Amino acid sequence: MKRLLLILTIILPLLTVGQNWSPNGATWHYGFSVWIDAGYYKIEYVGDTTITSIQCKKLRKTLYHENLAFQTFDTTVTGTEYTYADTDKVYIFKHNKFYTLYDFSAHVGNTWIVPETKRYNGCDTVGTIRVDSIGKMTINNQNLRYICVSLADNSQKWGWSAKIVEIIGPIKSFVSYPYDYLFPQKFDYCGMVLDELNEGGNFRCYTDNTTFAYSSDIALSCNFITSVNSIEKKSNQIKISPNPSRGSFTVDIAKELNVREIRLTDLLGNIILRQQSNNQTKITIDNLQSGTYILTVIDIYNRATNRKIISCP
Protein backbone atom coordinates (compact mmCIF):
# COMPACT_ATOMS: atom_id res chain seq x y z
CA MET A 1 0.00 0.00 0.00
CA LYS A 2 2.82 2.42 0.86
CA ARG A 3 4.43 1.71 -2.51
CA LEU A 4 1.11 2.38 -4.29
CA LEU A 5 0.66 5.68 -2.45
CA LEU A 6 4.20 6.68 -3.38
CA ILE A 7 3.56 5.92 -7.06
CA LEU A 8 0.29 7.87 -7.03
CA THR A 9 2.04 10.80 -5.35
CA ILE A 10 4.53 10.92 -8.20
CA ILE A 11 2.18 10.19 -11.12
CA LEU A 12 -0.93 12.22 -10.29
CA PRO A 13 0.77 15.62 -10.44
CA LEU A 14 2.20 14.65 -13.81
CA LEU A 15 -1.27 13.79 -15.08
CA THR A 16 -2.83 17.06 -13.95
CA VAL A 17 -0.08 19.56 -14.74
CA GLY A 18 -0.66 21.77 -17.76
CA GLN A 19 1.81 23.14 -20.26
CA ASN A 20 4.41 25.50 -18.84
CA TRP A 21 2.57 28.64 -19.90
CA SER A 22 3.97 31.99 -18.74
CA PRO A 23 6.17 30.94 -15.80
CA ASN A 24 8.04 33.45 -13.64
CA GLY A 25 10.09 35.79 -15.79
CA ALA A 26 8.21 34.98 -19.01
CA THR A 27 8.99 37.77 -21.49
CA TRP A 28 8.27 38.14 -25.21
CA HIS A 29 9.71 40.72 -27.64
CA TYR A 30 8.22 41.72 -31.01
CA GLY A 31 9.73 44.07 -33.58
CA PHE A 32 7.59 47.09 -34.42
CA SER A 33 7.62 49.51 -37.36
CA VAL A 34 4.75 51.73 -38.55
CA TRP A 35 5.20 54.79 -40.71
CA ILE A 36 8.06 56.72 -39.07
CA ASP A 37 7.93 54.85 -35.73
CA ALA A 38 10.22 51.88 -35.00
CA GLY A 39 10.96 49.88 -31.87
CA TYR A 40 9.54 46.85 -30.13
CA TYR A 41 6.68 45.49 -28.03
CA LYS A 42 7.61 43.82 -24.75
CA ILE A 43 5.10 41.47 -23.13
CA GLU A 44 5.90 40.20 -19.65
CA TYR A 45 4.34 38.15 -16.89
CA VAL A 46 3.73 40.51 -13.96
CA GLY A 47 1.69 38.39 -11.52
CA ASP A 48 -1.47 36.40 -10.97
CA THR A 49 -5.10 37.29 -10.43
CA THR A 50 -8.35 35.36 -10.01
CA ILE A 51 -11.21 35.73 -12.50
CA THR A 52 -14.41 33.69 -11.98
CA SER A 53 -12.49 31.36 -9.62
CA ILE A 54 -9.75 30.74 -12.21
CA GLN A 55 -6.17 31.77 -11.45
CA CYS A 56 -4.90 33.79 -14.41
CA LYS A 57 -1.56 35.11 -15.60
CA LYS A 58 -1.33 38.89 -16.00
CA LEU A 59 0.65 39.84 -19.12
CA ARG A 60 1.59 43.51 -19.41
CA LYS A 61 2.17 44.99 -22.88
CA THR A 62 4.63 47.86 -23.32
CA LEU A 63 5.64 49.63 -26.53
CA TYR A 64 9.16 51.11 -26.73
CA HIS A 65 9.53 53.18 -29.88
CA GLU A 66 11.36 56.03 -31.54
CA ASN A 67 9.97 58.61 -33.95
CA LEU A 68 12.53 58.71 -36.73
CA ALA A 69 11.40 62.08 -38.06
CA PHE A 70 11.49 64.01 -34.76
CA GLN A 71 14.10 61.81 -33.06
CA THR A 72 11.95 61.35 -29.95
CA PHE A 73 11.71 58.22 -27.82
CA ASP A 74 8.58 57.09 -26.01
CA THR A 75 7.46 54.23 -23.75
CA THR A 76 3.77 53.36 -23.58
CA VAL A 77 2.02 50.68 -21.52
CA THR A 78 -0.69 49.57 -23.95
CA GLY A 79 -2.61 47.27 -21.62
CA THR A 80 -2.75 44.01 -19.69
CA GLU A 81 -4.08 40.66 -20.92
CA TYR A 82 -5.39 37.90 -18.63
CA THR A 83 -4.61 34.31 -19.65
CA TYR A 84 -4.40 30.79 -18.26
CA ALA A 85 -3.64 27.33 -19.65
CA ASP A 86 -4.50 23.70 -19.17
CA THR A 87 -2.68 20.73 -20.67
CA ASP A 88 -3.66 21.52 -24.28
CA LYS A 89 -5.06 25.03 -24.50
CA VAL A 90 -4.25 28.64 -23.67
CA TYR A 91 -7.23 30.86 -22.83
CA ILE A 92 -7.69 34.64 -22.78
CA PHE A 93 -10.32 36.72 -20.94
CA LYS A 94 -12.28 39.20 -23.07
CA HIS A 95 -15.87 40.50 -23.13
CA ASN A 96 -16.47 39.01 -19.65
CA LYS A 97 -15.72 35.46 -20.84
CA PHE A 98 -12.79 33.19 -21.66
CA TYR A 99 -11.90 32.45 -25.28
CA THR A 100 -9.53 29.78 -26.56
CA LEU A 101 -6.34 31.49 -27.71
CA TYR A 102 -4.36 28.39 -28.82
CA ASP A 103 -5.41 24.75 -28.97
CA PHE A 104 -2.50 22.31 -29.31
CA SER A 105 -4.80 19.28 -29.25
CA ALA A 106 -6.63 20.51 -32.37
CA HIS A 107 -6.76 18.52 -35.61
CA VAL A 108 -6.45 19.78 -39.16
CA GLY A 109 -9.67 21.56 -40.11
CA ASN A 110 -10.70 22.45 -36.55
CA THR A 111 -11.77 26.06 -35.96
CA TRP A 112 -12.36 28.32 -32.98
CA ILE A 113 -13.25 31.94 -32.25
CA VAL A 114 -10.59 34.37 -31.01
CA PRO A 115 -11.21 37.89 -29.66
CA GLU A 116 -9.73 41.18 -30.84
CA THR A 117 -6.47 42.49 -29.40
CA LYS A 118 -7.57 46.14 -29.40
CA ARG A 119 -11.05 47.60 -29.74
CA TYR A 120 -11.71 49.77 -32.82
CA ASN A 121 -15.02 51.48 -33.50
CA GLY A 122 -16.77 49.90 -36.47
CA CYS A 123 -14.58 46.77 -36.47
CA ASP A 124 -15.50 43.18 -35.55
CA THR A 125 -14.58 42.11 -32.03
CA VAL A 126 -13.88 38.45 -32.89
CA GLY A 127 -12.52 36.30 -35.70
CA THR A 128 -12.38 32.60 -36.54
CA ILE A 129 -9.18 30.71 -37.23
CA ARG A 130 -8.69 27.30 -38.84
CA VAL A 131 -5.92 24.73 -38.27
CA ASP A 132 -4.11 23.95 -41.52
CA SER A 133 -1.41 21.61 -40.21
CA ILE A 134 0.01 20.26 -36.95
CA GLY A 135 3.32 18.77 -35.83
CA LYS A 136 6.11 18.72 -33.27
CA MET A 137 9.47 20.44 -33.07
CA THR A 138 12.37 20.25 -30.63
CA ILE A 139 13.54 23.45 -28.92
CA ASN A 140 16.09 23.36 -26.09
CA ASN A 141 15.67 19.58 -25.87
CA GLN A 142 11.92 19.94 -25.38
CA ASN A 143 9.54 18.25 -27.80
CA LEU A 144 6.85 20.89 -28.39
CA ARG A 145 3.60 20.75 -30.34
CA TYR A 146 2.82 23.34 -32.96
CA ILE A 147 -0.20 24.32 -35.06
CA CYS A 148 -0.23 26.29 -38.30
CA VAL A 149 -3.37 28.39 -38.56
CA SER A 150 -5.03 30.89 -40.89
CA LEU A 151 -8.28 32.84 -41.12
CA ALA A 152 -11.33 30.61 -41.51
CA ASP A 153 -12.45 32.86 -44.38
CA ASN A 154 -11.42 36.17 -45.89
CA SER A 155 -14.21 38.06 -44.14
CA GLN A 156 -12.59 37.52 -40.73
CA LYS A 157 -10.84 40.54 -39.19
CA TRP A 158 -8.89 38.96 -36.31
CA GLY A 159 -6.60 35.94 -36.03
CA TRP A 160 -3.27 34.76 -37.44
CA SER A 161 -1.72 33.23 -40.48
CA ALA A 162 1.20 31.78 -38.57
CA LYS A 163 2.97 28.87 -36.91
CA ILE A 164 2.13 28.73 -33.18
CA VAL A 165 4.29 26.73 -30.75
CA GLU A 166 3.71 25.63 -27.16
CA ILE A 167 5.19 27.93 -24.48
CA ILE A 168 6.18 30.55 -27.08
CA GLY A 169 3.08 31.30 -29.18
CA PRO A 170 3.31 32.47 -32.83
CA ILE A 171 6.89 32.35 -34.17
CA LYS A 172 6.49 32.66 -37.94
CA SER A 173 4.03 34.59 -40.09
CA PHE A 174 2.76 33.22 -43.41
CA VAL A 175 1.57 36.56 -44.78
CA SER A 176 3.47 39.37 -46.50
CA TYR A 177 3.55 41.66 -43.46
CA PRO A 178 5.51 40.19 -40.53
CA TYR A 179 2.91 39.99 -37.77
CA ASP A 180 3.32 36.93 -35.56
CA TYR A 181 2.20 38.63 -32.36
CA LEU A 182 1.28 36.77 -29.15
CA PHE A 183 -2.32 37.94 -29.50
CA PRO A 184 -4.62 37.94 -32.58
CA GLN A 185 -3.59 40.35 -35.30
CA LYS A 186 -5.80 42.74 -37.23
CA PHE A 187 -6.19 41.99 -40.94
CA ASP A 188 -7.58 45.30 -42.18
CA TYR A 189 -7.82 48.94 -41.15
CA CYS A 190 -11.47 49.00 -40.07
CA GLY A 191 -12.08 51.53 -37.34
CA MET A 192 -8.56 52.97 -37.32
CA VAL A 193 -7.80 56.66 -37.57
CA LEU A 194 -5.08 57.77 -39.96
CA ASP A 195 -2.27 58.24 -37.43
CA GLU A 196 -3.18 55.34 -35.13
CA LEU A 197 -0.61 52.60 -34.46
CA ASN A 198 -1.64 49.00 -35.02
CA GLU A 199 -0.65 46.84 -32.05
CA GLY A 200 1.70 43.93 -32.76
CA GLY A 201 4.82 42.99 -34.64
CA ASN A 202 7.14 40.20 -35.69
CA PHE A 203 8.43 37.70 -33.14
CA ARG A 204 11.98 38.25 -31.87
CA CYS A 205 12.51 36.18 -28.75
CA TYR A 206 11.10 34.52 -25.66
CA THR A 207 12.81 34.02 -22.28
CA ASP A 208 11.79 33.07 -18.73
CA ASN A 209 13.42 32.16 -15.42
CA THR A 210 13.86 28.52 -16.43
CA THR A 211 16.58 27.36 -18.80
CA PHE A 212 14.17 27.65 -21.75
CA ALA A 213 14.72 30.42 -24.30
CA TYR A 214 14.08 30.84 -28.02
CA SER A 215 14.98 33.52 -30.56
CA SER A 216 13.93 33.99 -34.18
CA ASP A 217 17.41 35.50 -34.76
CA ILE A 218 15.99 38.22 -37.00
CA ALA A 219 17.23 41.16 -34.95
CA LEU A 220 20.50 42.27 -33.40
CA SER A 221 18.95 41.94 -29.93
CA CYS A 222 15.56 41.40 -28.30
CA ASN A 223 15.26 45.09 -27.41
CA PHE A 224 16.75 46.51 -30.61
CA ILE A 225 15.64 50.06 -31.44
CA THR A 226 16.88 52.11 -34.37
CA SER A 227 18.48 55.05 -32.63
CA VAL A 228 18.96 58.09 -34.86
CA ASN A 229 21.33 59.63 -32.34
CA SER A 230 23.65 56.61 -32.33
CA ILE A 231 23.50 56.15 -36.10
CA GLU A 232 25.66 59.17 -36.87
CA LYS A 233 28.44 58.40 -34.36
CA LYS A 234 31.87 57.93 -35.96
CA SER A 235 30.28 58.80 -39.29
CA ASN A 236 33.63 59.89 -40.70
CA GLN A 237 34.92 56.32 -40.37
CA ILE A 238 32.21 54.82 -42.61
CA LYS A 239 31.53 56.46 -45.95
CA ILE A 240 28.59 55.38 -48.11
CA SER A 241 28.17 56.60 -51.66
CA PRO A 242 25.87 57.49 -53.14
CA ASN A 243 23.44 57.84 -50.26
CA PRO A 244 20.51 58.07 -50.94
CA SER A 245 20.69 55.80 -53.98
CA ARG A 246 18.43 53.69 -56.17
CA GLY A 247 19.48 50.43 -54.53
CA SER A 248 23.27 50.30 -55.12
CA PHE A 249 25.87 51.50 -52.62
CA THR A 250 29.63 51.43 -52.10
CA VAL A 251 30.79 51.38 -48.48
CA ASP A 252 34.31 52.47 -47.50
CA ILE A 253 35.36 51.64 -43.95
CA ALA A 254 38.37 53.09 -42.15
CA LYS A 255 41.00 50.45 -41.31
CA GLU A 256 41.23 51.63 -37.70
CA LEU A 257 37.74 50.23 -37.04
CA ASN A 258 39.24 46.68 -37.17
CA VAL A 259 36.11 45.20 -38.73
CA ARG A 260 34.95 41.77 -37.56
CA GLU A 261 31.42 41.65 -38.94
CA ILE A 262 29.15 43.74 -41.18
CA ARG A 263 25.35 43.68 -40.93
CA LEU A 264 22.57 45.43 -42.80
CA THR A 265 19.15 45.55 -41.13
CA ASP A 266 15.81 47.20 -41.81
CA LEU A 267 14.08 49.42 -39.23
CA LEU A 268 12.50 46.38 -37.55
CA GLY A 269 15.93 44.87 -36.98
CA ASN A 270 15.45 42.16 -39.63
CA ILE A 271 18.87 41.16 -40.96
CA ILE A 272 19.14 41.76 -44.72
CA LEU A 273 22.88 41.12 -45.05
CA ARG A 274 25.37 39.61 -42.63
CA GLN A 275 28.97 38.72 -43.36
CA GLN A 276 32.16 38.03 -41.45
CA SER A 277 35.00 40.35 -42.33
CA ASN A 278 38.74 40.29 -41.79
CA ASN A 279 39.12 44.06 -41.52
CA GLN A 280 37.48 44.48 -44.92
CA THR A 281 37.50 48.14 -46.00
CA LYS A 282 35.18 48.16 -49.02
CA ILE A 283 31.91 46.38 -49.77
CA THR A 284 29.22 46.78 -52.43
CA ILE A 285 25.50 46.54 -51.75
CA ASP A 286 23.25 46.04 -54.79
CA ASN A 287 19.53 45.60 -55.55
CA LEU A 288 18.32 47.01 -52.24
CA GLN A 289 14.57 47.57 -52.20
CA SER A 290 13.18 51.02 -51.41
CA GLY A 291 13.35 51.92 -47.74
CA THR A 292 15.59 52.96 -44.86
CA TYR A 293 18.24 50.57 -43.55
CA ILE A 294 20.95 50.51 -40.88
CA LEU A 295 24.48 49.43 -41.71
CA THR A 296 26.24 48.11 -38.59
CA VAL A 297 30.01 47.60 -38.53
CA ILE A 298 31.21 45.51 -35.55
CA ASP A 299 34.89 45.61 -34.56
CA ILE A 300 37.08 42.95 -32.92
CA TYR A 301 36.15 44.36 -29.49
CA ASN A 302 32.44 43.81 -30.26
CA ARG A 303 31.76 47.56 -30.51
CA ALA A 304 29.20 48.63 -33.12
CA THR A 305 29.21 51.67 -35.40
CA ASN A 306 26.02 52.45 -37.33
CA ARG A 307 25.14 54.37 -40.47
CA LYS A 308 21.77 55.01 -42.09
CA ILE A 309 21.25 53.93 -45.73
CA ILE A 310 18.32 55.20 -47.80
CA SER A 311 17.24 53.35 -50.93
CA CYS A 312 14.94 55.42 -53.15
CA PRO A 313 12.31 54.16 -55.64
Descriptive labels:
mainly beta, five-stranded antiparallel beta sheet
Q: Explain this structure to me?
A:
This protein is mainly beta and 313 residues long. It contains two helices and 22 strands. It has helices spanning 2-16, 228-231; strands spanning 27-34, 37-51, 54-67, 72-85, 89-94, 97-103, 111-115, 126-139, 142-151, 158-159, 162-165, 169-173, 185-186, 202-207, 213-215, 238-241, 249-253, 259-266, 271-276, 282-285, 291-299, 304-311. The strands form five sheets. An eight-stranded antiparallel sheet has the order 6-5-4-3-2-1-14-15, with no helix packed on it. Strands 7-8-9-11-12 form a five-stranded antiparallel sheet, with no helix packed on it. Strand 5 and strand 6 form a beta hairpin. The longest helix has 15 residues, at 2-16. The model is unreliable at 4-18 and 227-234 (pLDDT under 50).
In short:
The protein is mainly beta. The chain has 2 helices and 22 strands.
- Main β-sheet, in a few words? 8 strands, antiparallel
Mean pLDDT, all residues: 84
Helix and strand composition category: mainly beta
Strand content: over 45%
Give the proportion of residues in helices.
under 10%
Order of helices and strands: HEEEEEEEEEEEEEEEHEEEEEEE
Note the gap between the termini. Answer: 79 Å
The tally of beta strands, per DSSP, is 22
Overall morphology: globular
Query: Given the structure, what is the number of helices?
Result: 2
Strand order, largest beta sheet: 6-5-4-3-2-1-14-15
- Rg, nearest Å: 23 Å
Runs in which pLDDT lies below 50 for 5 or more consecutive residues are 4-18, 227-234
